[in-house]
């Protein structure tokens, strides 16, 4: 009997459906689709059958949804429906009767694997016979001796008395906190939050390969009762970050809730802190590698400018499914399955990855103690070599001992044998053999310190965005530790020498004290104070400041201008001089032939130590102060077009530092008193500042003679032609005083890269406003000031430049105690001094209102009005115009100054005024922050 067999051949539709895209892997095509907008993806789905399949994939719509603007999320059963709901087009596009289209002739291993990860179950995925040590009733002494900063351990019994052990279940938490919004962790730069009831509903409906999970470091603020449900286990009594207020310290505690398949992909905890994690509900699978051992499939990138560390890693589930099976037994991580009530300890620097096997609820905290303190300081030290070694071990090094930026720092192609490298010259102070001696990786602080960049300095190097706190916050933290924990000073000093080069600056300070017959500092005075950008020491009745910010040229002009200002102020009749600390000494300290030498300098003339090193590029001739205000304006112009690294490298000799010694004032700075001052005391401060600003802004400015001005103008024109294509020609038809001409050219140059600068600063500055910034700013800054034609037909500007401090902030205002009454009320603090005139400049007086209003007043309009009443001067005259020139409101001028400011003023504004993050225009922000100025003027 014969049977006719008919073979049906299904033609592959990929080539016809994708066209040239057929040449690309499916993963690449999907990545390209994720860059499109939801409407564009919807249109592209109509292009062909394969595009229909690719454009309707749920992981794609998840990315599209999460990459939208910040908002509170509500899941609608699928990510496509959720996205359309957010666009308010769900009703127009949703057709419940429409069946999905099915196509043959197409298959994709990439899509299949992703689909599998979305629907796989993890019931039998536990690793019950784990090799992480399990302990019960672990004593503090045993923990400190055997585990602290050494190896992980899983401890039971630490949460037995917690209320959280009984009440932290999804059902009970929803009953109590269902309408409370918690932060969501996911791979998006946007900040996403969900109400707990919506999130729990999402976990029951979703089929995501990498589900959203709650990872909220602010849960104690939105639900403070949760903090009462648990306590820090007795094994972790110390956290050196606790000297900071909660709003100052880096994130340190998290509520974690996640469904099956969610988790934390491979990472090393921020700042090389240690952590404990207690599970209250569900099961978690953990994998850990010791420091310096990069997991298979993970790539570490290190920025060679600021040391920022970026890690590319698959999701937890993808790693366990795709990479874990490839590992030989000897290459597998340390593993365990964590059960409810158990606490796992993760030491500093350890790589770890977590996968939730079912819905889990946990609480975790990171901390700093004596065992990891130096590692935390090392992580925040400037440079990049040590960061690469801390994360990737010797994989971060080439054979010559330097970081490999071009090659991915991945161990996927390498065996797990320890790679050895030759010792580089940057380790030349080590007591180890050279010339062929090999070095093995060791996670030891003395070993890791070898890779610090000697030429990088904390005060003027780029700050890594991966650091858990900023530069100023780091200095404040170490200072508070030094004062608040005197028993730990040996350890604190070691850490500060790593992070701040404290040993170098302390040596300079002691040499200056000896040279000027000042008693050597007491123990409390050996540490730099404050959060400023230069090392400052309080030594008995003196303040010693060493200028290092932005390199030698910037420091030279900072001191030169401060000395010129002080001289002019002392010769005037201004009452301001009674509120500025007296200068006792000033000059330069420098290293020569291994010895410190000191040269006094009063700001006049060019010292030989500066001439010797060729630091005279920006001198304006025929001026009494060659590095004073006019020379500084030339330098400001050059600085406006330079990156920080270029600025520092152009600063000349690294071992020359200007210094100034002033009288120490009794009392406290406003930053220390802000929370204890009464309204009347703060109101008096506002009046005081108004009076001092008045005296500052009317202080005469040294005029330029014709020869000096011509020299300065020539310098500006040469730099404009070299860098700005001759745009200075716009000012030639306008009659400008010399100061204003310089002022406007600097402002215009700062404006040129404003968009990229704001993009680099990023959050919390809204992205839509960054995109509109160039439309908002004027074409030329002279347009901001009222113009009119004089009798010769030339436009004139009626707004003169004056001395401006530019940096009157809460740590530059001093108050002293007093006992007197005002209107029957006792006042205990009154303002007495204004500090730090090294940022002195010539410019619009309005510039001084920006730091005062935003930093000291925190945007309080009543305090601003109090200052303006005491100020009694207009911030520039405004004239009407008959020639079509637009006269702007003063609020617009203030907002423009904020936008182009070299400091991140906008970050402060949007950090303080969170409601403005959803503003649709700069005009809206302008009115909210500066609108009241228009009423006064």
Automatic annotation (TrEMBL):
One GO location term (cellular component): nucleus
Keyword Oxidoreductase annotated: yes
InterPro entries named in the record: Cupin_8, F-box-like_dom_sf, F-box_dom, JmjC_dom, JMJD6_ArgDemeth/LysHydrox, Kinase-like_dom_sf
Native source species: Tagetes erecta (African marigold)
Claim: Oxidoreductase is one of the keywords in the record: yes
Family label: Belongs to the JARID1 histone demethylase family.
Keyword terms, alphabetized: Iron, Metal-binding, Nucleus, Oxidoreductase
Cofactor dependence: Fe(2+)
PROSITE patterns recorded: FBOX (PS50181), JMJC (PS51184)
Cross-referenced SMART domains: JmjC
GO terms of molecular function: metal ion binding; oxidoreductase activity
Subcellular location: Nucleus
Name the UniProt record assigns to this protein: F-box protein
Domain JmjC: start-end pairs: 221-384
Domain F-box residue range list: 18-64
A Pfam family: Cupin_8
Organism ancestry: Eukaryota, Viridiplantae, Streptophyta, Embryophyta, Tracheophyta
